[in-house]
Amino acid sequence: MFFKKKIKALINREEVMKGQLPKHVAIILDGNGRWAKSRGLPRTAGHQEGSVNVKAMSILCADLGIKALTVYAFSTENWKRPVEEVKFLMKLPIRFFDEWAPELMENNIRMKIIGNEGELPLELQEKVREIQELTKNNTKMVLTIALNYGSQDEIKQAMQAIGSDVANGAIAPDEIDEKLIESKLMTAGLPPLDLLIRTSGEERISNFLLWQMAYAELYFTRTPWPDFKEPQFLEALVQYQSRNRRFGGLSEKK
Ligand code: IPE
Ligand code: IPE
Ligand code: MG
Fold first, then answer.
1. Catalytic-residue membership of 177
2. Which residues touch 13 (CB under 8 Å, ≥6 apart)?
3. Which ligand is nearest to the CA of 45?
4. Mean pLDDT of all residues in the chain?
5. Where are the alpha helices (DSSP H) in 65-199?
6. What residues have CB less than 8 Å from 107, skipping those under 6 apart?
7. Catalytic residue among 78, 153, 207, 227
8. 168 catalytic, yes or no?
9. Which segments of the chain have a pLDDT < 50?
């Protein structure tokens, strides 16, 4: 026990950076509500705290040399929540993107939004366009925020696009391959997903990146999102580095 604690205490950025890092990390940001409840605060306070953490973790990822970070902020199913909570969640990114813009520029981070943008409030749609335009030439890392995103919806839209190309004769059905499907997904252009993290104890995917996670390593932790900070993230990376990724082949070590 003592030994284990000691090892944990020794994890630092430099050590982790010596090992192989994932190029693309995705996080299901879960547990904001429970984090707030456990402190006697309203759920919205958890979302506020969670958003501040997205900023801190994005900068950390960029500093570590991770090329892409994709975070799940609002799912196509989250509209089922109470109106007041949904309203708050639609307002939060507007304020947040404004506060955040200078730091994104300073840290050379490009922001991209995936999801059904057309169903977002107009003010948020406008802000999304603005922040993507502002940061479009940044090259250190792509931060993708999934807002009103559902993976089944994404796959459905890809199928519709391919279906219409087939119907108008632009491609033949046997020309449909994995590459073509990937090119029609909202994540087109991002590196393959290496590591998927879900915070707050739930061990499910909740309609996130179903196609993209084909060979991702999965990491579940009980820590709620607002408490998932640098030490917890480094621990996830150390775990990732200890995994033996075989991609269906055989381990080199055996
Ligand atoms: C994640 O935290 C944020 C969103 C899904 C918007 P939750 O709001 O799901 O927090 P819990 O799971 O209720 O604790
Ligand atoms: C998943 O969290 C969606 C996001 C983090 C945006 P939920 O809290 O909505 O997931 P379920 O309902 O527990 O599956
Ligand atoms: Mg939740």
1. no
2. 63, 64, 230, 234
3. 1
4. 95
5. 83-106, 122-135, 151-167, 178-184
6. 58, 59, 62, 63, 140, 141
7. 78
8. no
9. 254
Other beta carbons within 10 Å of 224: 24
Ligand nearest to the CA of 34: 1
Distance between Cα 81 and ligand 3 center (Å): 11
CA of 232 to the centre of ligand 1 (A): 19
- pLDDT number for residue 9: 58
CA distance 155 to 160: 9
Task: Say how far apart CA 26 and CA 250 lie, in whole Å.
Answer: 26
Cβ atoms of 235 and 16 within 8 Å: the answer is: no
The closest alpha carbon to 63, from 220, 234, 235, 243, belongs to 234
Full DSSP string of 217-244: EEEE-SS-GGG--HHHHHHHHHHHHHS-
Letter for the amino acid at 78? N
